[in-house]
Amino acid sequence: MMKTKIALTLLICICCSLMPLLSHAQLDPGCNPDLPCPIDGGLSLLIAAGIGIGAKKAYSARKKTWSGE
Asked: Can you say whether residue 49 is alpha, beta or left, with left for phi > 0 and alpha for psi between -120 and 50 degrees?
């Protein structure tokens, strides 16, 4: 039973590692060099989330020093 689980796990790992070799993705067309590439909305969300996390940590640190903990 244990040998079967190990063999199955190994087979799944090998298949997952070879999957990128079997898939054929489209080439990236890139941007027109004359026009600036737009920044995706996801990037702006990540920046906003980073600012929010930084503000929360700064607020917590300042609150901790004010309360004398």
From this structure: alpha
Q: How far is 41 from 49, CA to CA, in rounded Å?
A: 12
The whole-number pLDDT of residue 46 equals: 86
Query: Residue 55: how many CA atoms within 13 Å on its side-chain side?
Result: 6
Judge whether residue 50 has pLDDT over 90. Answer: yes
Cα–Cα distance for residue pair 69/63, rounded to 1 Å:
9
DSSP-assigned states of every residue in 5-60? HHHHHHHHHHHHHHHHHH--PPPP----TTSPPPPPHHHHHHHHHHHHHHHHHHHH
Nearest alpha-carbon partner for 43 in 35, 32, 34, 51 = 51
